[in-house]
Design goal:
Mean pLDDT: 95
Largest sheet: 7 strands, mixed
Strand order of the largest sheet: 2-8-7-6-5-3-4
Helix content: 40-55%
CATH architecture of the largest domain: 3-Layer(aba) Sandwich
Low-confidence stretches: none
Order of helices and strands: HEHHHEHEHEHEHEHEEHHHEEHEEEH
Number of domains: 2
Radius of gyration: 21 Å
């Protein structure tokens, strides 16, 4: 009888609640208004021949490398950051190896690590979800082959400082250190200029968030030239589709669009955090395009809250199943128009649940 590898049978199920997403999308950290008009124009001008040819990644990698200010042989375009994670695990992990993550964090880290046959070592974030530098360093062993760090972290929005990340990289020279900067545009802090401090550092960026290209699935993996050479061996030469490659230069070129969008998101973040404070809802100050808040003390409270918001046309994400996130909900931020809708619905929901005995905080 044909059976999957034992590691595959141990992969935790991940079922993103994508079905029936009718309403204002403040649940998946997407760009809520969409991509640059220049991207749409490029899409409209694609030809049948463009789609008939195998995609050529190299020329677009050179353009993105120029934009980032790095040599093109230190960069690999990937099918979203998820593929970059998968490639790192395929290249560096195997049965008997260990990989460290900070909990809570992006759930796909665990899935790709387990699929490789390696063991996940989860280190709890510190007080107020601060980056646990000492605790993480203390869990490094000779079996540690990967350390995955989202920075800013998802779902908490907290940020590790550059020196903390370099400390971890120096403490584990035998391990690949992934610094996932999916939300870089909203934090403004990056390890990119310091990446050559340790050849085991890898940095990922995505065009799914600020750039509004989640549907095209395109990301960037940056790393040491020799290490990337090994990763390219396990990567398909056609991993990024022709449509994404055609549109990416237009997205990158329109920095005015990105800067305006990010400015609106940062303003919305401040307004939402102020409103949460006014409502007496605990939250964690964020460096990303979302805010994590504790709307109750149990999973049922978070479920009731997200369901009531959904009924009023606002989608937010229940994060109660994440480590130490009982009763927590994550709010994705949009421009001020979307934030105004969120705030009015938030106020009604808090009032309605407060009037329901046992529903709001338990």
């Amino acid at each position: 009888m044909l059976n999957p590898r034992s590691a595959v049978t141990k992969i935790p199920a991940y079922h993103p609640p994508l079905a029936g997403r009718d309403g204002l999308r403040l649940d998946f950290n997407e760009n809520t208004v969409g991509c640059s008009p220049r991207v749409l124009s490029r899409l409209q001008n694609l030809t049948a021949e463009d789609l008939a040819r195998y995609p050529e990644r190299g020329p677009i990698e050179m353009k993105v490398a120029e934009f980032l200010g790095i040599p093109s042989d230190q960069l690999l375009l990937t099918n979203g950051v998820d593929e970059a994670l998968h490639l790192l695990c395929q290249t560096y992990l195997g049965p008997g190896d260990e990989a460290l993550i900070v909990a809570p964090t992006y759930s796909m880290y665990r899935i790709y690590i387990v699929a490789s046959g390696a063991q996940v070592i989860a280190v709890s974030a510190g007080k107020d979800f601060q980056f646990p530098t000492s605790q993480l360093r203390n869990r490094i062993s000779k079996r540690t082959r990967l350390i995955a760090i989202a920075n800013p972290n998802n779902p908490t929005g907290t940020l590790a400082q550059a020196e903390e990340l370099l400390d971890i990289a120096r403490s584990a020279p035998q391990a690949a250190i992934l610094v996932d900067e999916a939300y870089y545009e909203f934090s403004g802090q990056t390890l990119l200029p310091l990446r050559n401090d340790s050849p085991n550092i890898f940095i990922t960026r995505t065009f799914s968030k600020a750039y509004g290209l989640a549907g095209l699935r395109i990301g960037v993996l940056v790393g040491d030239r020799e290490q990337l050479g090994a990763i390219r061996r396990v990567s398909s030469p056609y991993n990024v589709n022709a449509v994404a490659l055609a549109c990416l230069p237009e997205a990158v070129a329109d920095q005015n669009y990105i800067e305006n969008y990010v400015t609106e998101i940062l303003a919305s973040r401040a307004v939402l955090e102020s409103a949460l404070k006014d409502h007496g809802i605990p939250f964690w100050p964020s460096q990303a395009n979302f805010v994590l808040a504790r709307v109750g003390t149990s999973a049922s409270a978070a479920h009731a809250f997200t369901e009531r918001m959904r009924q009023q046309g606002i989608l937010v994400r229940d994060r109660s199943t994440d480590h130490n996130c009982e009763g927590c909900v994550r709010f994705t931020l949009g421009p001020r128009e979307h934030t105004n809708r969120l705030l009015s619905t938030l106020a009604r929901t808090v009032e309605e649940l407060s009037a329901t005995p046992g529903a709001s905080r338990s």
